Amino acid sequence: YSGNQLNDYNIIVTSDVLAEGVNLHRANVIVNYDSPWNASRLMQRNGRVNRIGSTANLIYNYMFYPSREGDQQIQLYSNALIKLQGFHSALGEDSQIYSHEEIVREFELFDKEIHDENDDKLTLIREVSELHRDNPDLYNRIKALPPKSRCCRSAGVSPANSDGTTLVFLASKEQVDYVLVDKDNTPRRLPFMDAIKRLKADVDEPGYPLGDTEELHFLQVNRAIELYNQLLLSQGATVSMRINTHDKVVLGALKFLRTEASAAMGDDHGRELCRRLQTLVEQGVYNSLPRQLGDLAKQQRGADPMSDEELEQQITELAETYCPDIEESASASSANATPDIIISETFIA
Q: What are the pLDDT digits (tens) for 237-277?
């Protein structure tokens, strides 16, 4: 390398291989022919040019956006915009990277006034670690509390709590939730750290028996369980919808069941088995089922497809494995969703 600067090229066309770790500060124009799913890639590309050593007064950043029809399907523009806006809000930025819709602002990265939930979680982890180290007896007493532990506490201990409200900690194999039921017996879900702040108590804080509040306590606990079940059902529907809309394996399995599998089944009973399998795939109950159906579909498209009799036998075996009785499966699923009450506390004046 002679040290002499060459000027042989005005344009460099590259893949993402030059998106990181390369100085391109002699350039001042960036043309992005794609919109990456990972928005930080756009920031890395700009960083190759917009860096120390640049002599350009202005740096121009051009974007090729997805087509309107394509973006309606994959929503790439909005996803990239949301992610970049999250970076701007968290870290600050002095220029727009992807769209004129971005809102940019500058602030100190380590501003002491900025306080988020991560700080609270780190503090909580530190407190629990110190308790385990300094007072193992108390730590083990807390750990050994039985499920359905319940009590009354004074609402005056914490400004976050108010008279006549109940906080319920619910858990099952499906999810964990913290539900606060207010004076009007209206339940609402609480974020983890909000619930922890309400549950937190000093070692010497007295607890009270339920006494006259027993009826109110159980009424509000039942309201919390009702909300928990509603949230669980709505989340299940959302997951099922997302799977059906975007998962190629699932879409392929459904198409196979509707066409080749149904055609191979010789009677109404066989076609009913296909409909049962289709229901399970749509509900997203078993992750392995769509893959197994996909394997059957691939074999049928290959050079050595199965006969209708062989395919019927394969579908029948899958049905016997995954859906001997749909109604029983649904009942079992509902039973598993019943949450355990870990802790419930009613706050009184």
A: 444 444 444 467 888 888 888 887 777 776 777 878 888 88
User: For 304-308, which contacts have Cβ atoms below 8 Å and span 24 or more sequence positions?
Assistant: 308/263, 308/264, 308/266
The two beta strands, 149-154 and 60-63, are unpaired
- Picking from 165-174, 261-270, 340-349, which range would have the lowest pLDDT averaged per residue? 261-270
Measured CA distances, 261 to 269, 275, 286, 301, 316 (Å): 13, 10, 19, 13, 10
Q: Are 151 and 209 in contact (CB under 8 A)?
A: yes
Contact 167, 151 (CB under 8 A): no
Dist. CA 298–CA 305, nearest whole Å = 9
* Mean pLDDT score across all residues of the chain: 80
Q: Shortest CA distance to 346 belongs to which of 217, 234, 157, 178?
A: 217
What is the average pLDDT across 298-327? Answer: 81
Alpha helices for the chain (secondary structure H): 40-49, 68-74, 76-91, 117-134, 136-143, 192-199, 214-246, 248-256, 262-264, 268-283, 288-301, 308-322, 326-336
Pair 103, 85: CB distance under 8 Å: yes
Q: What is the CA radius of gyration of the chain?
A: 29
What does 71-108 look like in DSSP terms, one character per residue? HHHH-HHHHHHHHHHHHHHHH--SS-SS-TT-------
Long-range contacts of 175-178 (CB under 8 A, 24+ apart): 175/231, 175/232, 175/235, 177/228, 177/231, 177/339
Report d(CA 229, CA 147) in Å as an integer.
19
SS3 per residue for 20-81: CCCCCCCCCEEEECCCCCCCHHHHHHHHHHCCCCCCCCCCEEEECCCCHHHHHHHCHHHHHH
